[in-house]
Structure formats: C-alpha cells, structure tokens
Amino acid sequence: MVYAWFLLILSSLQIFYFFKMKAFIQNTILISCLISCLAACNKTDTNTTDTDPVPLIGGLTSAYKDTVSVVVNGLSIKYSKTSACFPSNEIFAFDVTANNLPTAAIYQWNFGDGHVLKGKNVRNIYETAGTYTVTVTVLNSNNQLLARSTISVEAKGQQVTPHAAFSSQIYDVNFVNNMAFTSSSSVQRGTLTNYTWNWGDGNTTSTSNAVTLYNFTATGQSTVYPVQLIVTANSGCKDTATIPVTVAPVYNISGDFSAVSSNVCDNETFVFTPTATGVPAGAVYRWDFADATGLVTGNPVIKRFTYQNDYDVKMTILLNGKTIYQTHKWVKAYGQNIKPKALFLKNVVISDATTVTWAFYSQSNIPHGYFIGYKWDINNGARIDDNFNTYIEHKFNKAATNTTQNISFIVTGNSGCTDTARTTIVIPAL
C-alpha cells in the first residue's frame, strides 16, 4: 500500500515537472518570436544589393532607389531600381513575401518582356522603355497554385543618357560679338527635349531648338565667357558641356597657327606654332586655349588639354601691350585620362532542362569622352557581336558535365583607345 502511494506521488511530480518545462519552453519560444518580430519591424530595407544575385564584373553599379511596396492578393511585393542615367544601367530588383505559405513554396516571376526567373529575390533589366506587367506566381512543391499577383512597372530602358556637345562661331563677321551656337548633342535611345544655355554673363536661355543665336555685350577688348550647355532627354537624364568662348575684335594681319598633337591615348600633347605673316618685330603671341586654364605667351607653345572637347583656340598678337591681331580655330582635343574602362554585369535570365540563357550588360565608363564601339566575344570567337550593343543575351546548350565559357567585352572610346573586360561562366550539366 505504501509502495502504491509512493508511485502515485512520483507520477504526480513527473506530470507537474513536464507541464512546468513545457510552459518554460513555450515562453522561451514566445519571447524569441517577439524579439525577432521587433527586430523585423524596426528593420528598414533601403538597399537590396545585400541579396544581389547578380555578380559584378570589373566595377560598381549605382545604388537602388525609389523603393515601392504593394500588397496584392496577400503577397507583399517590393521593388526598386538603379538609375537609368550614365554611368549606371537601369536594373530592377524585386522581392516578395507572404504569410501562411509553406517554406518550400516556389516563386515564379514573369517580367512581361519575355524573361522569367524563380526565387523570392530576383532582378531584371528592360531593354526598351515602357510599362511592363510583372506577374509573380506561388506554387507548392506539387506545383499547385497557392497565390498569384500582378503589378505594373515603368521602365526607362537602356542607353537613354544624352551626350552634350556644341560648337560656336561668329554669326556676322562685321559684328564679332554676335555668336551662333550649334548643338551636336545626341541620345542613342529617346529624344532630346531641352537645351539650356548659360552664357557666362549672367543670362540664360532655355529652348527646344538645337541652334541658338546670342549677342554678347560689345567691348573694346577680348572677353572670355564660360558657355555651358545642359541637354535633357525625354528620360530625364542630362549631360553638360562647357566651352569658354572668347569674343574679340579682328585685326588686319593675315594667317593663323598650326596645332599638331601626339600621344593621343597616353598623354596627348599639342604644339601650337604661329603661321601668321606681316607680324612686326617684337610682337608677343598670347594664347587662350578656351579651357579656363588662363592665358599663355610664347612661340611656339606646348599644351595638354585636361578634358575632351572641341576648343576654340585663340591666338592674340600684341605689340607694346596692345592687341594688334587675333585669330582662332577649332582644335579637337581628346584630353587626358581618355582610355575607356570596360566593365559589365552578367546574370541568368532563363534556364530550362537543356539550355541556359545568360545576359550581359555594360557598366563601362570613360573618365573623359564617350563610346563609339562595343564588341562582345563569346567563347573565344564562337559568337562576335560588335553592333554597339550595351546589352546582349546568349543561349548556351547544357552538356553531360559542367562546361565553361569565356566572355570578353571590348569597348572603344571616341579617341580610338580600347579596353577589355573578361570573365568565365559555368554552364551546368543536364
């Protein structure tokens, strides 16, 4: 009888201990969940590059911005994008979360441009501007539909940054202060919508015309105006070009000067030599290279332009401190640091049982200048694309084992200088 009571008391203690331990474990789990919830609630996701699945090759892209969050059909979708303006390329980052879905759920994305991917965090680039319908479908491990949501995104596309360039000349030879400015700006995709001129004398002009006339105030001596042109494309991207423009009188000495350049790619150097005739003895030659570096005297003179541009170089001849003649000519300078830097990104856009399609898109830049050529070399010449494409896709066939492909990207600047970026990708086995 005593033994039976002893067993009963022991069983009661075990049950009591079991429920106490269960309560302790439940409370511990509850506290952990609360801490995790508070941490998640206080977290601000401002940079999706932490989970960036796209490896960078040779450089950096711009930060993601303009994050948009929407909840559709129980799915919380967040997307943001990088700048479409040079030197970046517009890249969209998408993220989807949902409650009460199994951890093994499959997330399928259709970006509305023919690209499809799987994953909770994905990226896509749109080649052309437009509004695209993005659909995310959630399936369970048996491919049964759990949820589906659709959103619209506005893409500006690729190659939408303009290149600003302009030239100036005297509009009427009898009035050297009347100048004509002609924009030669361009944009590869899109249209130029505005030309804003800052004349350097306190006045500005905003116009949609590529040719603009402007009358500077007439003075008795040469005056240099740092004329600036800002061009805007319909994408909103801008570019700026600045040329100091000299307004000066003309004197009756004939001839001008020669400008001979050398070492264009490495350290471009000009030699300016006067060729004017009828110049009296003792005259001094003064040079304005129209790059805001100041005046130089000499015959001949050596000059290195820092920035790439067409410079309206002016030679002034003085005698006893008085200007007796002035002439000018446009000199095309490539400047310093003009060798381009080849950079590109890669990512998988489509993968199926037998093939995988990779996308490659340029992030190249030039410190001074602009690009005139892109050449993609897939697997040592198996495919050559030199059609000036900043973005290409290539489909690779899968084999019985993993294979590698060599990718080269050659860029050419308007100076003729080139640079090459290389990488190797792995094609998974069947």
The CATH architecture classification of the largest domain is: Sandwich
Shape call? elongated
Indicate how many domains the architecture comprises.
Answer: 3
Q: Please provide the count of β strands.
A: 30
**Radius of gyration from the alpha-carbon trace, in angstroms:** 33 Å
Unreliable stretches covering 5 or more consecutive residues: 1-59
Order of strands across the biggest sheet?
1-24-25-28
Provide the CATH topology of the largest domain.
Immunoglobulin-like
Q: At the first level of CATH, what is the class of the largest domain?
A: Mainly Beta
- Biggest sheet details: 4 strands, antiparallel
- Strand content is over 45%
Mean pLDDT comes to 84
CATH superfamily of the largest domain: Immunoglobulins
The rounded distance between the terminal residues' Cα atoms is 74 Å
How helical, in percent, are the residues? 10-25%
Count, helices:
2
Describe the protein.
The model is unreliable at 1-59 (pLDDT under 50). This protein has 3 domains: 48-155, Sandwich (Immunoglobulin-like); 166-333, Immunoglobulin-like; 344-427, Immunoglobulins (Immunoglobulin-like). The chain starts with a helix and ends with a strand. The strands form 8 sheets. Strands 1-24-25-28 form a 4-stranded antiparallel β-sheet, with no helix packed on it. The protein is elongated, with a radius of gyration of 33 Å. Helices cover 10% and strands 49% of the residues. It has 430 residues and is mostly beta strands. It is built from 2 helices and 30 strands.
